[in-house]
Amino acid sequence: MRIIGEIAHPTLKITVFQMNNKLSVQFESGMYAQIYRIREQAEVRTVADIQKLLDQTFLEAVNDELNRMHRIKNEAFARFLPVEDEDEFEEII
Fold first, then answer.
1. 78 membership: H or E segment, kind and range
2. Is 21 left (phi over 0), alpha (psi -120 to 50) or beta?
3. Coil, strand or helix: which one is 19?
4. pTM for the full model?
């Protein structure tokens, strides 16, 4: 897999990879990443083609999914590491 380009975005790091007649578009935000794989075809072969594909609706959906991933992780940690009661410690006078 090799990087063939990056697409500028104010809040996301968008990297385009190429391997075995497929393009992969990776979106990164903080600790989270999403990858979409697209078969190369006549209409989609270059970074410029991918950039056209990534319209506002697509990018909003990516952001929504990244926020959902963050929420899922936080909810899992809340179940795994429950908040302990503050009254557990003895009162020191």
1. helix 56-80
2. left
3. strand
4. 0.82
